[in-house]
TrEMBL record:
Source domain of life: Bacteria
InterPro entries: IF-2B-related, IF-M1Pi, IF_2B-like_C, Initiation_fac_2B_a/b/d, M1Pi_N, NagB/RpiA_transferase-like
Gene Ontology molecular function: any one: S-methyl-5-thioribose-1-phosphate isomerase activity
Residues the UniProt record annotates as site (Transition state stabilizer): 140
Family membership: Belongs to the EIF-2B alpha/beta/delta subunits family. MtnA subfamily.
Designated name of the protein: Methylthioribose-1-phosphate isomerase
EC number(s) given by UniProt: 5.3.1.23
Species of provenance: Thermus brevis
Length: 330
């Protein structure tokens, strides 16, 4: 099967190449990133997006800062300011800090962060596949494009399909940025998994008809009690699944848990430009002068979760105990 990668590093040319996810699926265009400043801008503009992929990109942003002789403090600051919600960004930059001033060390650490994405996602996919069956619904994009590895929620779906457990995927289009329509549909098509695109507001109707056996989503930041931020619309799906008695899973590497937060209340939610709601690929949808609001993520309370799928296995309630145990903290 053809492997999808959101980025590649050309060490000789000192360039980190990003597959421009704003242009997919209509065009496959690679964008060169030469400095940490350019990387911060690419993350902010969502040339690259998805929590683990943002983490890997930020780590290589620091490698570029070393290669280009940028001010490391400034590079780190710019990258930290690029997007606020996915904790993987901060996790990766924290790991890079001890290697500041050491090019070989910083490159090795960035490579390790990327390699660990692949390793953890292989495990997440295998664990997650065990609990999925029949028709599965997913939201946003959690596949290779969002991570640089196999994917989290989507990795589990593809693996469950490979094992003959999952027959069909409902793909939420994921307004307003359309990660589902543009990216998840693209990845599932390439993986040969039968999928049907739906507008976000159709999920409840399908659940009421008994056509959804499980919902699985990714995570941008999880608190120690299991509350988590993910793409706007996830909370709505969680409540709907709960109402209909449908299992609802979150899949994530443990690096997406923020051990400084007891609950989801403290998770910073990114607010993006209203233009992304008012326009679609540059085409105006609403009358001029109309206001729009664009929170890019929402918080789902842990009580709606059936299980949390991690590289260490599937965690069940009470989640605070299970997460502390998995993280090795008291
Ligand atoms: O705004 P995005 O596209 O970066 O948001 C991505 C998501 O919300 C994903 O579900 C999340 O990062 C998990 S990716 C494995």
């Amino acid at each position: 099967m053809e492997r999808i990668l959101p980025f590649r590093f050309d060490e000789k040319e000192r360039v980190f190449w990003l597959l421009d996810q704003r242009k997919l699926p209509l065009e496959e265009i690679w964008v060169p990133v030469r400095t940490a400043k350019e990387m911060a801008e690419a993350i902010r503009a969502m040339v690259v997006r998805g929590a683990p992929a943002i983490g890997v990109s930020a780590a290589y942003g620091m490698v570029l800062a070393h290669l280009r002789g940028e001010d490391l403090e400034g590079a780190d600051r710019l990258l930290r300011q690029s997007r606020p919600t996915a904790v993987n960004l901060f996790y990766a930059l924290d790991r890079m800090r001890p290697h500041w001033g050491n090019l070989a060390g910083s490159l090795k650490e960035a490579q390790a962060i990327w390699r660990e994405v692949e390793e953890t996602e292989r495990a997440i996919s295998l664990h997650g596949a065990k609990v999925l069956r029949g028709q599965v619904l997913t939201h946003c994009n959690t596949g290779p494009l969002a991570t640089g590895g196999y994917g989290t929620a989507l990795g589990a779906i593809v693996e469950a399909h490979r094992q003959g457990r999952v027959s069909h995927v409902w793909v939420d289009e994921t307004r307003p940025y359309l990660q589902g329509a543009r990216l998840t549909a693209y990845e599932l098509k390439k993986a040969g998994v039968p999928a049907t695109l739906i507008a976000d507001n159709m999920a409840g109707f399908l659940m009421a008809q008994g056509r959804v056996d499980a919902v699985i989503v990714g995570v941008d930041r999880m608190a120690l009690n299991g509350d988590f931020a993910n793409k706007i619309g996830t909370y709505t799906l969680a409540v709907l699944a709960h109402h209909h008695g449908i299992p609802f899973y979150a899949a994530l590497p443990l690096s997406s848990v923020d051990p400084s937060l007891e609950s989801g209340q403290g998770i910073p939610i990114e607010e993006r430009s209203p233009e992304e709601v008012l326009e679609l690929r540059g085409v105006r949808l609403a009358p001029l002068g109309v206001a729009a609001y664009h929170p890019a993520f929402d918080i789902t309370l842990h009580r709606y979760l059936t299980g949390i799928i991690t590289e260490k296995g599937i965690l069940y309630p009470p989640f605070d105990e299970a997460l502390r145990d998995a993280l090795g903290i008291s």
